[in-house]
Amino acid sequence: MIREYNRTKAVEYAQKWALGKNPQYYYFGGIGGDCTNFISQCILAGDAVMNYNRYYGWFYIDSNYRSPSWTSVDYLRRFLLTNDKLGSYGHIDDLNNLQIGDILQLRQNFTHFNHTLIISEKYDDEIYVCAHSNPALNVPLNTYPYIEMVGIKIDGIY
Predict the structure, then answer these.
(1) In sequence order, what E strands does 52-111 have?
(2) Per-residue model confidence as pLDDT tens digits over 18-76
(3) 126 CB contacts (<8 Å, ≥6 apart)?
(4) Which of 21, 50, 145, 154 is most buried when burial is the number of CB atoms within 10 A of its CB?
């Protein structure tokens, strides 16, 4: 059964914790960054369910027992784009088609994608995001430098 992703709840969570750290989750800042951990928390707040497959799932028990997709930019993208079991799923889409609660991933260097953000507001042609690692609350997307960007529209939850 497919359920709807609650974009409003995901963004409310993002806005509540963008400048802080939820004590229920380990903060990975300083040891690789906290951006994807934070975005995973936001997606979960959007009524997602965890997929406890150790290698191909998406889950968090504690800092030592979590799926690679919970904290890795590339693995989260892979999970969302290929998941057909339990949890959230989505597809790559054009920036104009994305909504609040959808995510953006940036490649800010020449080797790999390294940053994940959530769209928190969208007005006309302006997109605002929330993020961790460098805490951001409703910051204009155009303030982020990047070489390449991928937008992932979250379609629903299995």
Answers:
(1) 60-62, 65-66, 88-92, 103-107
(2) 999 999 999 998 888 999 999 999 999 999 999 999 889 999 999 999 999 999 999 99
(3) 140, 141, 142
(4) 154
Q: End-to-end CA distance of the chain, in Å?
A: 6
Q: 3-state DSSP call for residue 105?
A: strand
β-bridge mates for residue 62, sequence order: 65
3-state secondary structure of 151: strand
pTM of full prediction above 0.85? yes
Q: Which residues of 16-38 are buried (b: 16+ CB within 10 A; e: fewer)?
A: ebbeeeeeebbbbbeeebbbbbb
Interhelix angle 35-45/73-82, rounded to 10 degrees, is: 30
**What is 125-146 written as a DSSP string?**
TEEEEEETTTTEEEEEGGGS--
Pairing of strands 60-62, 148-157: unpaired
CB atoms within 10 A of CB 127: 22
Which two three-digit tokens encode residue 49?
């369910």
